[in-house]
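Subgroup meeting minutes
Present: P.N., E.W., G.H.
Scribe: E.W.

1. P.N. recapped why we're keeping a running log of single-chain structure predictions: easier to compare across weeks, and new members can see raw inputs and outputs side by side.
2. G.H. added today's entry (251 aa).
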Amino acid sequence: MTGELASPYHSGSQCARVVTEAWGEDNLYCPNCSSPRLTRLAHNTKASDYSCPNCSFWYQLKCQRPRIGNTINDGAYKAMLDAIRSDATPNFYFMQYELATWSVKNLLLIPSFAFPISAIIKRKPLSPAARRAGWVGCNIALSRIPSDARIAVVTDSKVASEKAVRTQYRRVKPLAEIKAKERGWTLDVLNAVRRLGKTQFTTSDAYTFAHELEQLHPDNRHVRDKIRQQLQVLRDRGFLVQVERGSWALH
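Output recorded in log:
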């Protein structure tokens, strides 16, 4: 990255914003189409930093110095929930950078359609003494997003090919065909069966997550029926293969 862009600024956050956003304009590309560049949006554009000049997909770049762990600090809790429910979430690029060298260490892409409500963790309201007293933020729990949709673009400074990134993006894109209201269930069940650590599993294996899924979706009292339904949805979208009745294989 071009660290010299930070020289007019004194605030650490301002320095990081200017340098990383400029890098994004020069280096980020659209995984949804063949566009090699993204267009930077006007400052203060709600929820997004870039758009694709070809397919008009929107992207947000979130950057941090610590290594990307299990959670990412995000913005307003209610705004994120509303975005997911209305299918208005941007595609996210999450970056870890090294300040001493102004270099990108890790870059993770998560498509807009891969965020279940269960991944949005409510934070405590800001104290009455805070400038935005009562404001409620959120964290994004990456572990609650299926591994299929956590697309590594840069890993420990090693860059994945654009072809590999676009191939993985296309593979998970069928999830976008599912209505936003139902997609949370699909994502949570996909995440659950991935966590089994098996290439082949049974419906009974999937039922071991029934209690967890019931807590995530308290309005549904027929959790096992819903699990069976979602296994069929995942089969129809190419994530699973039905080996025989009650037996499944990851695709």
